[in-house]
Write a structure and sequence with these properties.
TIM Barrel, eight-stranded parallel beta barrel, disordered N terminus
Length: 305
């Protein structure tokens, strides 16, 4: 078990988020703690029990400055009106999640995936989102190399539309535990290889610490991505030990094993100074009072990011 776990956020007490731990100890190889929440962005999926309108109002009241909208939150609504609501509350639309899922067993199915991603780009443009985050997909039983080729082919087909709409595309490498069915792109290095192949200013990478913290080449690849101009987004949460669900048991920052502040230092040294996005999937935290949870997110951001 990670040493950081012993002084971490301990989940829920009486159905509500527990008191936060003390801030992470300063270290010469880490940047200082954030002074405020001016760079804090929250994904709507992080507070999934709230509809998008309530999330926007609550985030704005709490001083949060950015929001990444999940497509599920837009279903059946007016995408343009949602974008206006966000801006009217003084928030920036940071990105739209998510597109991707390119690999498929037939050309026809791959074409349908590309068509769905075209709709994603249109939605991002209507929302006013400058970035579309992509979970690239994988086909069970298909060689990963072939899935990566199909991902690159799908991206190549989308880039002219993305450029015309002025919506950047961000490949999000996923942890290898998802290589079988969610993404054949599992490291920054693999994402960089696709970016280098396609060489478009509209294609880059979203770095999520949950998926990449284990990689002993992460610092090197983050620096290289910065030099290549492909470092588009930075997502944070934490890895609980033990993890009881591989999809919906992410931790609040400071609750687990990830050296979040050290990775933030690498990302900033590489030139990224955009929003820091809190993306947490947790049935445990969704079951708590979301207003108290929002305050816990802010406290964890200041203490551990």
């Amino acid at each position: 078990m990670c040493a950081s776990w012993r002084c971490s956020y301990n989940g829920c007490r009486n159905g509500n988020p527990a008191r936060r731990s003390l801030p992470s100890e300063p270290s010469p190889d880490m940047p200082p703690a954030p002074r405020d929440v001016s760079r804090l962005c929250i994904h709507t999926q992080t507070t999934r029990p709230w509809a998008v309108g309530e999330a926007v109002r609550r985030y704005a009241a709490a001083g949060v400055r950015g929001v990444t909208v999940w497509r599920e939150a837009l279903a059946g609504g007016d995408v343009g009106a949602t974008g206006r609501l966000i801006r009217d509350h003084g928030l920036s639309v940071v990105s739209l999640c998510r597109g991707g899922f390119f690999p498929a067993g037939t050309a026809g199915l791959r074409g349908k995936a590309i068509d769905e991603n075209r709709r994603c780009i249109d939605e991002a443009a209507a929302l006013g989102a400058p970035l579309l985050v992509l979970v690239c997909g994988a086909l069970p039983g298909q060689a990963l190399d072939e899935s990566r080729k199909q991902i690159a082919d799908g991206l190549a087909a989308l880039l002219p539309q993305a450029a015309a709409a002025r919506v950047k595309l961000a490949i999000e490498p996923l942890h290898p535990m998802y290589a079988g069915d969610r993404s054949a792109v599992n490291t920054m290095r693999q994402a960089r290889a696709i970016c280098q192949e396609l060489r478009s200013p509209w294609l880059g990478i979203a770095v999520d610490v949950y998926h990449t913290w284990w990689d002993d080449r992460l610092e090197e690849d983050v620096a290289a991505s910065g030099r290549e101009g492909t470092l588009f987004a930075f997502h944070v949460c934490d890895w609980r030990t033990p993890t009881v669900d591989l999809l919906e048991d992410r931790g609040l920052m400071g609750e687990g094993c990830i050296p979040i502040r050290k990775i933030r230092g690498w990302v900033e040294d590489a030139g990224f100074m955009g929003f820091i996005e809190v993306e947490i999937f947790s049935r445990r935290l969704w079951a708590t009072d979301q207003g108290q949870y929002l305050e816990a997110i802010k406290a964890a951001y200041l203490a551990h990011v």
